[in-house]
TrEMBL record:
InterPro entries: aa-tRNA-synth_II/BPL/LPL (IPR045864), BPL_LPL_catalytic (IPR004143), Octanoyltrans_LipM/LipL (IPR050664)
Pfam families on file: LplA-B_cat (PF21948)
Name of the protein in its database record: BPL/LPL catalytic domain-containing protein
Stored PANTHER family: OCTANOYL-[GCVH]:PROTEIN N-OCTANOYLTRANSFERASE (PTHR43679:SF2), OCTANOYLTRANSFERASE LIPM-RELATED (PTHR43679)
Ranges where the BPL/LPL catalytic domain occurs: 59-258
Domain of life assignment: Bacteria
Length: 291
């Protein structure tokens, strides 16, 4: 399949992990959400499901918050991240890691012991993606704080500039991201598709990111220790507890008078076909190693 046909409806990338977030507006968040708890899947399937949910958001204004896990430790690369000369299929296999390229931006990230979330929602084309990014991060922040995690958002003035090509996602926090004592706890990446928005990322239950240095073909400095729930809130470092907190935070809305209806997501009949279509593209080596 020609790589020029990859996710044909996706428009030019407008944002990626590490860009500053604007002040959140409650108006950007839909008042009704589907909530989906997915079983652990391989990397290509996980990215294909997120892409299919983005299609639904674009076509039918469906908003879905999804939480999921990974069958095997998997490195994901950003949509336009350059991997040639740094990572290779053989080296990743040698160290026991799978690989996938995300439909969103950002940099290399190892998915292992974590809660992965994705948010696919309609977003007016006149509305800045930064407002959606900030609103989603507020849901994440409230959930973590409800678990007793001393999490906070990185202010613009405290953020470092982050290059899109490396070295890895968790090496330093950027504006709008969630940290604990200055260390990144949540890494996120985004993509905008016409009138819809996708944001997904990792909430670390444990810090496995140093393994990325061993998985590279060239010497990489190991990233500084990331924040993780097993370090800052050990009793809360469970997938189910974090997912429950996310669902409650989403339902709470931005204010008491703006409570949100959250219901289990029921996929449409053609959803498996949508996922299979994206799998055919995202599982292609021409897509994975295209840069």
């Amino acid at each position: 399949m020609s790589i020029s046909r990859v996710v044909p409806s996706i428009a030019t990338e407008t944002a990626q992990s590490g860009l500053a977030a604007a002040s959140a507006s409650p108006d950007v968040m839909p008042r009704q959400w589907g909530f989906l708890r997915s079983p652990a899947s391989d990397g290509v399937t996980n990215m294909a499901i997120d892409s299919a949910l983005l299609d639904l958001a674009s076509e039918s204004a469906c908003a879905v918050w999804r939480c999921y896990a990974w069958e095997k430790p998997t490195v994901s690369f950003g949509r336009n991240e350059r991997t040639q000369g740094t990572f290779s299929a053989q080296r990743l296999r040698d160290v026991g890691l799978c690989a996938v390229r995300r439909p969103t931006g950002g940099r290399a990230l190892l998915h292992a012991r974590e809660v992965t979330y994705s948010v696919a929602m309609p977003l007016d084309e006149q509305q800045s993606w930064r407002v959606a990014y900030a609103a989603v991060n507020q849901v994440l922040l409230r959930a973590l704080q409800s678990l007793g995690v001393p999490a906070q958002l990185v202010a613009d003035q405290d953020a470092a500039a982050v290059a899109p090509d490396g070295p890895v996602c968790f090496d330093r926090p950027a504006a709008g991201e969630i940290t604990v004592h200055g260390r990144k706890l949540v890494g996120s990446a985004v993509w905008r598709q016409g009138g819809a928005y996708l944001q997904h990322g990792s909430i670390l239950l444990a810090d496995d990111q140093a393994q990325l240095a061993d998985a590279a073909d060239v010497p990489l400095p190991p990233p500084p220790p990331a924040a993780s729930l097993d370090a800052c809130a050990p009793a809360q470092a469970r997938w189910d507890l974090v997912v429950d907190a996310l669902a409650a935070s989403l339902a709470a809305g931005a204010a008491p008078l703006l409570c949100t209806r959250v219901v289990p997501f029921v996929p449409p009949p053609d959803f498996p076909q949508r996922v299979a279509s994206h799998r055919a593209i995202l599982g292609n080596d021409d897509w994975l190693w295209r840069r």
